[in-house]
Amino acid sequence: MIDQSVMQLTQVTYKPTLLIPAVDPAAVPGLKNVSITAAELAGAAGGAEIIELTTDTALTRTAHNGAWLVCLAALTLTAEFDTAGLGFECDVINLSGGSVTIGAGITVGNSATVLAAGGVARLRGLPGLSGGVVFWSGSSGG
């Protein structure tokens, strides 16, 4: 007989993560190029909106908060804390053959202002000494 007074249920939430390596599949034996549908990518994004970018873009809370931004061309991202705000967050994935420039209005932790091809970054709206910043750590790990 089970003593139900000591039973405890635990809720576990699983959020899948999509890893996109910055590697040429032809250079690694056994690694295959895999096609993924938009629906599969949306599922991997945990339901986040996926926005494809091909031109320079000014990030705003209304259009980009919580989204995965997939850069399909070399471009520049800019932001202003006034239009992004505290709690703003988005993931940037550079799938272009060039670099994505982290431009005006985005504070970079290590002074690197370029996200290389294959790189991934997370941008966040954080409180700052001057009222707030849109921040990126400067590493391709986000």
Task: Sum up the overall morphology in one term.
Answer: globular
Share of residues in strands: 25-35%
Spatial extent as radius of gyration: 19 Å
- Main structural class: mainly beta
Spatially, the strands of the biggest sheet line up as 1-3-5-9-10-7
Largest sheet: 6 strands, mixed
Q: What's the total number of strands?
A: 10
End-to-end separation in angstroms reads 50 Å
CATH topology name of the domain at 48-136, in short, is: Jelly Rolls
CATH class categorisation of the domain at 48-136 = Mainly Beta
Low-confidence stretches: 2-23
Arithmetic mean of pLDDT: 75
Helical content (DSSP H or I, runs of 4+): 10-25%
Individual helix count? 3
Architecture of the domain at 48-136 in CATH?
Sandwich
Structural commentary:
- By secondary structure, this protein is mainly beta.
- The protein has a domain at 48-136: Sandwich (Jelly Rolls), CATH 2.60.120.
- The protein is built from three helices and ten strands.
- The strands form two sheets. A six-stranded mixed beta sheet has the order 1-3-5-9-10-7, with no helix packed on it.
- A hairpin with a 6-residue loop joins strand 9 and strand 10 (133-136).
- The longest helix has 7 residues, at 38-44.
- The chain is globular, with a radius of gyration of 19 Å.
- Residues 2-23 have low confidence and may be disordered.
Q: Secondary-structure blueprint of this entry?
A:
Layout: H1 38-44, E1 50-53, E2 57-59, H2 61-64, E3 68-71, E4 75-79, H3 81-84, E5 89-94, E6 100-102, E7 106-108, E8 114-115, E9 120-126, E10 133-136
Parallel strand pairs: 1-3, 2-4, 3-5, 4-6, 7-10
Antiparallel strand pairs: 5-9, 6-8, 9-10
